[in-house]
Amino acid sequence: MDATQHDADERFRAEIRGWLEENLTGRFAALRGRGGSGREHEDFEARLEWNRHLAAAGWTCVGWPVEHGGRGLSIAQQVIFHEEYARADAPARVNHLGEELLGPTLIAHGTPAQQARFLPRIVAVEELWCQGYSEPGAGSDLAAVATKAQRTGDEWSVTGQKVWTSLAQHADWCFVIARTEPGSSRHQGLSYLLVPMDQPGVEVRPILQLTATSEFNEVFFDDARTDADLVVGGEGNGFRVAMATLGFERGVSTLAQQIAFRRELDAVIETAQRTGAIDDAVIRDRLVRARMDLEVIRQHALRTLGGAQGDGASVAKLLWSNWHRALGELAMEVAGPEALRVGADYALDDLQTLFLFSRADTIYGGSDEIQRTVIAERVLGLPREARP
User: Fold this and answer.
1) Over the stretch 266-287, which tens digit does the pLDDT of each residue have?
2) Which of 84, 127, 215, 249 is catalytic?
3) What are 7-11's contacts with CB under 8 Å, separation 24+?
4) What backbone torsions phi and psi does residue 90 show, to the nearest 5 degrees?
5) Is 249 one of the annotated active-site residues of the chain?
6) Whole-angstrom Cα distance, residue 330 to residue 270?
7) Within 10 A of 221 (CB to CB), how many other CB atoms are there?
8) What CATH number was assigned to the domain covering residues 129-237?
9) Which UniProt keywords apply (predicted)?
């Protein structure tokens, strides 16, 4: 990926930096730093208002083609946008699943009618989305999906259970992987359906996390209905489309994630200085290594952007998830005894939230085991694991 930033890119950097400085003021000023992993409950409605403010100014879906409502930015300019957004400490956006996952999937695999129906509402942040992949018996292994969808006239009837569904409690729609071919197994017979959440056949149950928040949910479908033409990529092609979505998930927006990681690392360093842990040579060495490893993660992301998704994305997931989990552990060590204390009503500080939420990093979004299998089979050419 050629991310060389020329004069036009620097003018673009000045444009977005200036816009953020002018607009993260007034009622939006208090939203700086709000939201994000483990903290999606923070000021959700206010952040939704901020997202719609971004949309009105043309700052959503910036990498999408112009004909689909985006700005058509180059990879280098998308990198700049996400970097400046993170550096401004702007609030975590509430439309990530629609903007970064479903939208690009529809652009690549959707019908013109599907694109016309859903893309403008994603750009305007008028409809929010969640992802119906994982199930109690099918976590990172999507080929084991058991949720079923049956065609009845001009509708699909969906029955089954999904779990770890981020922000389902706020979503208007869910993109669901379901088995549409009776008797099929593994990758065969799956379809990628778009299902409305506001209907009697859908129940959302929050999952209480270690952080005392509930951004993940169980979702139960009991004869939930959706239109027959809301199958993306054609009936039976759900696994291929789902893999494309996962590729988009690990795209350019992950660079903003790394800047957020740098802020967390800086907070850990500041804590080490305050508690005196920085005087320990071993702790200092681990902090230096954490900074070096974060730069390695960034350079890997830049090198693989715009290339084939899958293999490089699996490496990236292994790198950042293990790094972030280790940072949470280091945060507790430098905090010392105060790491064990919580405020009234289980009020966690930022480093405690970092530690507790990062325990899940190596599981969600594709577990380490799955990523290593992808690398072993697709990159190293090792024999495939025996499967039933």
Assistant:
1) 999 999 999 999 999 999 999 9
2) 249
3) 9/74, 9/76, 9/77, 9/80
4) -65, 150
5) yes
6) 13
7) 26
8) 2.40.110.10
9) FAD, Flavoprotein, Oxidoreductase
Q: If residue 299 lies in a helix (H) or strand (E), which one and from where to where?
A: helix 281-304
Q: Alpha-carbon distance 114 to 106, whole Å?
A: 7
Q: What is the pLDDT of residues 130-185, one digit of tens each?
A: 999 888 887 667 778 899 999 999 999 999 999 989 899 999 999 999 999 887 77
Cβ within 8 Å of residue 133, ≥6 positions away: 142, 145, 162, 177, 242
Instruction: Please tell us whether the domain made up of 250-379 is placed in CATH 3.40.50.150.
Output: no
Q: Checking DSSP bridges between strand 155-162 and strand 217-227, what pairing results, if any?
A: antiparallel
Residue of 38, 92, 88 whose CA lies nearest to 350: 38
Q: The whole model's pTM is what? A: 0.85
Length of the chain: 388
For tokens 């994982």, the residue is 134
Least confident of 189-193, 251-255, 296-300: 251-255
Give the pLDDT band (50/70/90) at residue 292: very high
Give 203-239 pLDDT, tens digit per residue: 999 998 888 888 889 999 999 999 999 999 999 999 9
Residues 6+ apart with CB under 8 A from 228: 151, 153, 154, 155, 156
CATH annotation of 7-94 = 1.10.540.10
Q: What is the spatial distance between Cα 285 and Cα 289, in angstroms, rounded to a whole number?
A: 6
Encoded tokens for 7: 């004069």
